[in-house]
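> forwarded from #structure-qc
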C-alpha cells in the first residue's frame, strides 16, 4: 500500500485528516503510566510513550487506554510496526525524552503519533524481524554502552547503557513520590561488575513496567540497564560516589531475557561476555551478597559534617 514517512507527516499534518500507513521501528520505550483519578470514571486510564523512527527521523508515539494492556508488552525496543488509522497531535511539552543512541538522527519534536482504541480505532501490525526488508530503510537500534572505568569521568545526568555481573542486590524499598503523598516509588540497589575497574556500578533501580524482571534480579545474573542517568555528587566531598539511576525510558534485562535483544550485537556487550568466559564462577559467587539494609549515599563520618 502507499506509505508515508515521519518527515512528510510533519510537513503536511495540518492540512490532512486521513494519513497514509506508517512503517516505523521502536527505538525507545517508556514505563507504563497510570493517570486514573477517583472522580473520573475511566475503564483503562493507561498511557505509554515510545520513540519510533524511519529513514527520515524520529518521533514520539503514544499508546492510549485499553490498547496498553493489549499491546504494551508486544511492543519491544527494535520491534517494527505498520500503523494505520492513527491520529497526529501537537506534542505534550512536559514529557521526558530519551537520549538517542544515534546523535545524528533528526528529531520531529512538534507533533506526536496517537494510537487510540476509537475515533478512529488504530490498526497496529507487528512485522516479524525476518520479514523486514533492508530497502525499507529503517534505522537500527543503537546504544550508548559504557564500561565502569569510563563512568567516573562522565558528567552529572549523562545518559548511558550498562552491562555487568550482579554481585549485590538489596531488598525492595519505598520512597514517597511527594511529601504527605500516599503514592510510593518502589526501588532497590544493585552492584554490577564488568572487569574494567575494581569498583562496581552502583545502580538505583526503580520498578518499571517489568515486574517479572525487577523481582528476579539475583547475584550472578548478567544485568543490562538502558537509558540510565549518571548521578554525580557535586559537593566537594572527596569520597564522593558516582551512581546510576533509572529514567522514565529505562529497560532492564537479566539472564534469560537477553536472547534476540538488539544490544547483543554491541561491541562492549561482546567484550563483557568474553571477560565473563575467563572468570571462575566459584570465585565470583564468594563475593556476592543479597538483601539487607543499604544506606546510600552514605552519611558523613561525624555529626558535625552532617
Amino acid at each position: 500500500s502507499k506509505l508515508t514517512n515521519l518527515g512528510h507527516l510533519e510537513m503536511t499534518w495540518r492540512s490532512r485528516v486521513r494519513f497514509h500507513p506508517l512503517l516505523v521501528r521502536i527505538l525507545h520505550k517508556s514505563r507504563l503510566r497510570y493517570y486514573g483519578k477517583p472522580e473520573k470514571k475511566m475503564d483503562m486510564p493507561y498511557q505509554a510513550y515510545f520513540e519510533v523512527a524511519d529513514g527520515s527521523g524520529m518521533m514520539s508515539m503514544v499508546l492510549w487506554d485499553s490498547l496498553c494492556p493489549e499491546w504494551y508488552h508486544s511492543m519491544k525496543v527494535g520491534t517494527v510496526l505498520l500503523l494505520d488509522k492513527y491520529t497526529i497531535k501537537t506534542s505534550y511539552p512536559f514529557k521526558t525524552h530519551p537520549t538517542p543512541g544515534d546523535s545524528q538522527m533528526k528529531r520531529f519534536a512538534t507533533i506526536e503519533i496517537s494510537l487510540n482504541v476509537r475515533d478512529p480505532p488504530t490498526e497496529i501490525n507487528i512485522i516479524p524481524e525476518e520479514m523486514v526488508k533492508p530497502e525499507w530503510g529503517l534505522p537500527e537500534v543503537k546504544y550508548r554502552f559504557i564500561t565502569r572505568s569510563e563512568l567516573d569521568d562522565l558528567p552529572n545526568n549523562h545518559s548511558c547503557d550498562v552491562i555487568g555481573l550482579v554481585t549485590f542486590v538489596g531488598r525492595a524499598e519505598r520512597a514517597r513520590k511527594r511529601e504527605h503523598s500516599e503514592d510510593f516509588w518502589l526501588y532497590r540497589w544493585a552492584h554490577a561488575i564488568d572487569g574494567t575497574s575494581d569498583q562496581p556500578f552502583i545502580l538505583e533501580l526503580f520498578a518499571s513496567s517489568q515486574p517479572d524482571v525487577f523481582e528476579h534480579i539475583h547475584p550472578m545474573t548478567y544485568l543490562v540497564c538502558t537509558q540510565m542517568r549518571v548521578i554525580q555528587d557535586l559537593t566537594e566531598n572527596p569520597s564522593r560516589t558516582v551512581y546510576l539511576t533509572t529514567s522514565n525510558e529505562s529497560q532492564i534485562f537479566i539472564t534469560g531475557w537477553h536472547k534476540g535483544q538488539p544490544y547483543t550485537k554491541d561491541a562492549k556487550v561482546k567484550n563483557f561476555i568474553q571477560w565473563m568466559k575467563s572468570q571462575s564462577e566459584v570465585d565470583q559467587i564468594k563475593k556476592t551478597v543479597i538483601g539487607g539494609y543499604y544506606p546510600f549515599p552514605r552519611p558523613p563520618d561525624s555529626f558535625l559534617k552532617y
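QC bot note: The chain has two domains: 6-136, 148-305. Residues 175 and 185 are 5 Å apart (CA to CA).
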